[in-house]
Fold:
Amino acid sequence: MTDQEFVEAFETCRLPNDQFHHRDHLRLAWIYLGRYGASTAAVRIAESIRRYASHHGASAKYHETVTIAWLHLVAESARRCPGSSFDQLLQASPELVDKNTLHQYYSPELLASETARIHFVPPDRKALPEKKIPDSLRALLAHLIDYAGLFPPAALTWPEVARNYARYLASPEGWMLNRLVLPARLVDAQLPSAWRVTLLVEDEPGPLPPRIETLETKAARRLSLPTYCEAPLAEINGAFAKIRTGGLTPHAIPPSEEIADFLHSAAARSIPFKATAGLHHPIRSFRPLTYSPDSPHAVMHGFINVFVAAAFAWLGAEQRILVDILNESDASAFQFLDGEMLCRGMGLGTAQIAEARRDFAHSFGSCSFEEPIADLKELGWLP
Structure:
């Protein structure tokens, strides 16, 4: 029975009760993790097994803690064996087949409790394996997002944005946050000294408070601080570049070939850049462009696609390779490991990614910090 046939038989409850054993539970967990990522897989497997048990008159046998704990253990084994088949996974992690493995984490008394049956409870013997962020992914995501909540489509008020930035800095994902994007009218806003700001200006702004680190303009020259210029590369003089990767309408989204040309040319000229607009999601996908119920939809570029392509561009990849990376819509094509990142048979070392981020692909502006984080968690790439 293929994976698809197995899942359909299970989810429609056509699979006989006497044909669903521990190994089948592990297989379902492995399939769901691959399809949906850790967060959604946990919800989906709990719902599916609960429904299956109820259909077969065995609702009392469903055990939430056992279900989710095994999902954790399968996920950890899958992280150690990326790209493996289910049979290969079991060969590499034979402890999964042994039901007693769970007793390394839980006492029999806790598993026998009604609370553990109804709700997931943490182990009382030793902690379940926690997801470790591979160093290649951490190198790609570190200080990647400039928070631009004042701007469309979010267009929040300044008090809301200030509260959000403070909250994001203090969050477990604060290491991904970069500068706060502010318009020139807020140059004198009272901010904590530790906040880092990039200021949008039309021309030289004059004396600035020390928390403002960079400037952004449509002019093509460096101003008094390091400057990101939304101008043709050939015209930029002594400054960084800025590329617009999306917008509020489908026509505002540049084709992959245009972005690839920008990355290839900027890398060849050693001009660092930041991106802005349209990079709310990690992987290229069809999405609404605003938060309005009647929002137009279009294929949006993914920030993983853009910054992986940028890293390859920095290391001299051909433009056609960059186009392929930008057009990739399958998240599983990107494998982040300790020491390297793999993409369709090509690889980048963690040190190479860190170099590209430091010297070339600086950041991207987004009116949402929460959407990118939620999507990365949905993919199972963040804990």
The longest helix spans residues 22-55.
